[in-house]
């Protein structure tokens, strides 16, 4: 709780220091004395040095995100937990720096600290109510890749250490509940598809389809050691890889009417690794009863859609759906839909409100064996207050019905606040 109070107080103090004083400019203020364009960085432009470095090809990124959550109902006790993430990165424009045309290099480090309400209060949910928690509370290398375009951007090639969700089924993380955050394949088969902040050695080729959108395919090394903390800061090659994850995605990027943009992604994946059956042994009996090893299967696979569409210049909607094979996946599908609206109040034109509903489903084979229904349903409502361009506070309400897909579990109601700053 002390960490939560300290973190919130720090961000509020930063907002008060960075926000311009009320009444700083009015109609009688000379144009020459009007404030400059709002800085995207909380600590400003370093007396112009940051912009000069970016113009030369060196673009730094520094960010901080915190998430507070309190369970008013659900779990075995009421608790408040605080978790956060620090990000430091740099993008190098290799065209400007070295003369390599249409080439760039990205390196990003992340650090996560804090505690997880879902565990500490025993909520029993499939998905985290603090999405920024997880994958080891440690410092790690999250990006270490090289990218280059060819034939005027027709072909885009990327290679290095990167996460699947950066390029495939990519989706924002505005919501605090993981049901509505990030690349959804990693939300249900996170044992081999690793979302941010995990990176793995991979390569990806993207082809622009003029007048339509793009097509892309990737190959990612599959190795559980990427999840560990050993040498997590180094771009090492781990031994013991089990196979290759091969995702493919087709993206349609239409524009309707008066500039209303859409994004419609259709994707599939296949992992060449061998994996255990989630229920049965080789004789077709439950292995937890027979005592025999689980049956083994060659290959794990799934498919997804990711739709986003502007309905007006302020209203946007989305639909995400993902399914995974029933032989090796404990969770076999997730569906989420929602909307965001910007400028609900004329006095706050940059603030936005979001609402989403979704479900995560346990494989029927596993659910039937455990004697539960298997479907967890979640909803979240948030409002974003942006005191300036570099800072935002997002209080939210979350409701989880049948957490863990079990109707015997008490429904969960969470009060949260997600805050982020760009330095």
What labels describe this entry?
single chain, mainly beta, 423 residues, 17 strands, Porin
Give the gist of this structure.
The protein has 423 residues and is mainly beta. It is built from seven helices and 17 strands.
Structure description:
This protein has helices at 2-18, 49-56, 94-98, 117-120, 185-188, 287-290, 364-370; strands spanning 58-73, 80-93, 103-114, 139-150, 155-162, 200-209, 213-222, 243-252, 255-256, 260-281, 294-310, 315-324, 331-342, 352-362, 375-388, 391-401, 412-422. The chain has 423 residues and is mostly beta strands. It has one domain: Porin, CATH 2.40.160. The chain has a 16-stranded antiparallel beta barrel.
What proportion of the residues form beta strands (DSSP E)? over 45%
Strand order of the largest sheet: 1-2-3-4-5-6-7-8-10-11-12-13-14-15-16-17
Number of domains: 1
Tell me the series of helices and strands, N- to C-terminal. HHEEHEHEEHEEEEEHEEEEHEEE
Structural class: mainly beta
| CATH superfamily label | Carbohydrate-selective porin OprB
Uncertain spans: 15-34
* Rg of Cα set: 23 Å
Largest sheet: 16 strands, antiparallel, barrel
CATH architecture: Beta Barrel
Fraction of residues in H or I helices: 10-25%
Task: Report the top-level CATH class.
Answer: Mainly Beta
């Amino acid at each position: 709780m002390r960490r939560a109070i300290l973190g919130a107080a720090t961000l509020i103090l930063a907002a008060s220091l960075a926000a311009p004083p009320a009444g700083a400019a009015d109609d009688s203020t000379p144009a020459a004395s009007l404030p400059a364009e709002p800085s995207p960085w909380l600590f400003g432009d370093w007396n112009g040095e940051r912009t000069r470095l970016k113009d030369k090809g060196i673009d730094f990124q520094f960010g901080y995100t915190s998430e507070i959550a309190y369970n008013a109902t659900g779990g075995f006790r009421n608790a408040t937990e605080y978790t956060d993430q620090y990000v430091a990165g740099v993008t190098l424009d290799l065209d400007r720096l070295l003369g390599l045309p249409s080439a760039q290099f990205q390196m990003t480090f992340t650090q996560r600290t804090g505690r997880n309400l879902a565990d500490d209060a025993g909520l029993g949910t499939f998905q985290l109510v603090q999405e920024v928690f997880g994958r080891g509370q440690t410092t790690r290398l999250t990006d270490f890749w090289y990218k280059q375009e060819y034939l005027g951007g027709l072909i885009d090639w990327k290679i290095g250490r990167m996460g699947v969700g950066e390029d495939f089924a990519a989706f924002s993380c505005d919501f605090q509940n993981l049901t509505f955050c990030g690349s959804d394949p990693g939300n249900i088969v996170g044992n081999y598809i690793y979302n941010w902040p995990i990176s793995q050695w991979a390569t990806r080729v993207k082809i622009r389809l003029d007048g339509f959108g793009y097509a892309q395919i990737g190959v990612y090394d599959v190795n559980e050691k990427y999840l560990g903390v050993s040498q997590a800061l180094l771009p090492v090659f781990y031994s013991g890889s089990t196979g290759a994850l091969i995702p493919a995605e087709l993206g349609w990027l239409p524009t309707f009417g008066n500039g209303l943009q859409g994004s419609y992604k259709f994707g599939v994946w296949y992992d060449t690794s061998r994996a255990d059956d989630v229920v049965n042994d080789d004789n077709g009996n439950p292995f937890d009863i027979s005592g025999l090893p689980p049956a083994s299967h060659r290959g794990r696979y799934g498919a997804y859609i990711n739709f986003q569409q502007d309905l007006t210049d302020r209203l946007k909607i989305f639909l995400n759906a993902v399914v995974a094979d029933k032989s090796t996946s404990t969770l076999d599908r997730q569906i989420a839909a929602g909307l965001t609206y910007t400028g609900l109040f004329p006095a706050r034109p940059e603030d936005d409100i979001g609402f989403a509903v979704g479900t995560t489903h346990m494989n029927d084979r596993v659910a039937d064996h455990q004697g539960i229904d298997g479907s967890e349903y979640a909803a979240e409502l948030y409002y974003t207050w942006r005191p300036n361009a570099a800072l935002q506070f997002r209080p939210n309400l979350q409701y989880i019905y049948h957490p863990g897909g079990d109707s015997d579990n008490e429904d969960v109601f969470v009060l949260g606040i997600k805050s982020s700053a760009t330095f």
